[in-house]
């Protein structure tokens, strides 16, 4: 079964492109034996509420609201735009990547054609590659190292999110208060004034990288012994904060 994901900023024309692709693919499969139907899953199909979940998209959203159509609130739009991590062909899990471009220069709207034929070829003729090792479900180690990594890193990101919600200035030293079970004082995170706050998507990417690397070290016994410390969760949390600090300082945040 082929899977096609349509993504983009809110109110950027995803539904229009999806409708176009649906009609195109339905016409194609009539003469194609291995694909019998096109199943479309939209936000409303999974009960996604527009109120729960850049310049041209914002303009289109405003026009929808003025016409009385369903539209995002300004707050919701800002949050969705902040959380959106643009796909890149440099990432192997984003390939093949097709871009449908809309632009508005000097008041002239230009909508480039959707690359339907290229998408069809990718869906029907592309070589099916085996899953990457990173996507495979790993068996938990005897010492529950993966569980410790998951718990500790989630706690750090939650503490960071709480600081952001409190309006803590993103500069200097920030103290991250972890749950009492960690038996640690608040962990310091030092950031420079020139650093920008990483998006939630970027933070999750950094967390997954950290977990993958340290889980491998524990699995092959050539690095971190996750349960050899008196307070392993606290030790992992300290390592992860240092990891975040280095990543943020590198300036690779979107």
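^ structure tokens above, recovered residues below v
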């Amino acid at each position: 079964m082929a899977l096609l994901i349509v993504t983009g900023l809110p109110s950027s024309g995803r539904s229009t492109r999806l409708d176009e692709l649906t009609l195109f693919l339905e016409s194609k499969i009539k003469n194609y034996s291995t694909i019998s139907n096109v199943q479309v899953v939209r936000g409303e199909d999974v009960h996604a509420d527009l109120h729960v979940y850049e310049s041209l998209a914002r303009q289109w959203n405003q026009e929808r609201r003025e016409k009385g159509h369903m539209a995002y609130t300004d707050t919701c739009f800002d949050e969705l735009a902040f959380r959106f991590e643009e796909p890149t062909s440099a990432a192997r899990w984003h390939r093949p990547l097709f871009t449908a471009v809309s632009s508005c220069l000097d008041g002239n709207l230009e909508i480039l054609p959707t690359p339907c034929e290229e998408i069809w070829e990718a869906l029907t003729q592309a070589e099916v590659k085996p899953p990457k090792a990173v996507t495979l479900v790993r068996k938990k180690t005897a010492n529950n190292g993966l569980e410790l990594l998951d718990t500790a890193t989630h706690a750090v990101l939650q503490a960071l999110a709480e600081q952001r919600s409190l309006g803590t200035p993103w500069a200097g030293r920030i103290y991250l208060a972890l749950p009492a079970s960690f038996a640690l004082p608040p962990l310091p995170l030092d950031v420079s004034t020139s650093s920008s706050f990483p998006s939630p998507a970027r933070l999750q990417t950094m967390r997954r990288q950290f977990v993958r690397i340290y889980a491998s070290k524990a699995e092959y016994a050539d690095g971190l012994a996750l349960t050899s410390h008196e307070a392993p969760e606290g030790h992992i949390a300290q390592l992860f904060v240092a990891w975040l600090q280095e990543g943020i300082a590198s300036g690779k945040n979107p």
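The chain has seven helices and four strands.
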